[in-house]
Amino acid sequence: MPIVLDCILKxxxxxxxxxxxxxSFYFYFSHKAKLVKxxxxxxxxxxxxxxxxxxxxxxxxxxYFHWAHKVVEGLKGTNETLEKELRKLFVQRxxxxx
Length: 98
Hints:
Layout: H1 3-7, H2 16-23, H3 31-50, H4 58-74, H5 80-92
């Protein structure tokens, strides 16, 4: 399966509960797909820290960070460097402790 197809989740209108359910399946992704997912989360979270997207509330940003943390937890052990950078963002947001 192509890496991008392995990573695709069309979640724009999904509830946070649905997203958390799907986060549990990332364990089964290929290693390359996991790397893409971690890189995507890192980029998205850094972007969210810089600016809130138009139409997003602070509550939605917080939910996204919590969901992203669950995703990253499901991908733990994939890439130490990416995971450390993501952890810094979660610490900044108070999702995890130092």
